[in-house]
Amino acid sequence: MDKRQHELVLPNKDLPFKLFLFEGGDGNYIRERHWHRSVEIFAVTEGEIRFFRGGERTILKAGELLLINSNEVHSVMAPTPNTTIVLQIPLGTFEGYFTEERYIRFAPTKGADDEALMTVLKKLYRTYQAGEEGYLLKVLSDYYRLLYILVTEYREKAVDKEEVNRNKKLNRLAKITDYLRDHYQQELSLEKVAQIFGYSPTYLSHMFRESIDISYKMYLQEIRLEYALGDLEKGELTLSEIADKHGFASGKSFAKVFKRRYGILPSEYRKK
């Protein structure tokens, strides 16, 4: 099933960006199709990970990095262990460099040096992890060096009107999907959410179908499943309690949606 989710990216508490090791480092990991408004860089130092975006598959090996643009729908798979540094840069960081409509896109251009970008990112991460006196100043120094490289060597200046329009639609939709994630435990009918955002139910339904190729109802169920799965794995709540906590109409409804998504019942999943 082709599901796409908007991911809300929050910076580290002491930094204006988010820096961490990829959560799929142990392998046997799949992150379904999603998007976020931040610009994201994956830098593999050990092993490999695989990306799917725009119908293309990319295998990223040790020593290689990949840029994910704002609102670029992608999925990630890591079948084997790896060590990957991830940097997520808030879109607002590039204020003043937008081409138009808060749109900016990065891609390797002639003369762009991935190795230089990789070196700065690894250095930035090592400094942050060491946490020695004055480390934040050094981290920010490397961070701004990285931003300079992106803006001067990777920023695309030619504007694709179709891409800009798609970006605008995903920006609008992201506000709605953020709301769904914040209130997913509540009753959230299509009509209610459409009214909150000033759309007709028909138009809101069309937004989901056209922009991310999934129905409103299915998208909301995927959010609820994502959170319910965490409680299912903890094993502290009954299936009925999990269903009630995460907005499902009943335990039976939860089981039906879960089996359609994962191929087995929640009770079977918990036993495994």
UniProtKB/TrEMBL annotation:
UniProt entry tagged with the keyword Ribonucleoprotein:
no
Keywords (A to Z) from UniProt: DNA-binding, Transcription, Transcription regulation
CDD domains recorded: cupin_RmlC-like (cd02208)
Q: Which SMART domains match?
A: HTH_ARAC
Q: Which residues form the HTH araC/xylS-type domain?
A: 174-272
The reply to whether Ribosomal protein figures as a keyword in the UniProt entry is no
Protein name as it appears in the record: AraC family transcriptional regulator
Q: Which organism is it from?
A: Ohessyouella blattaphilus
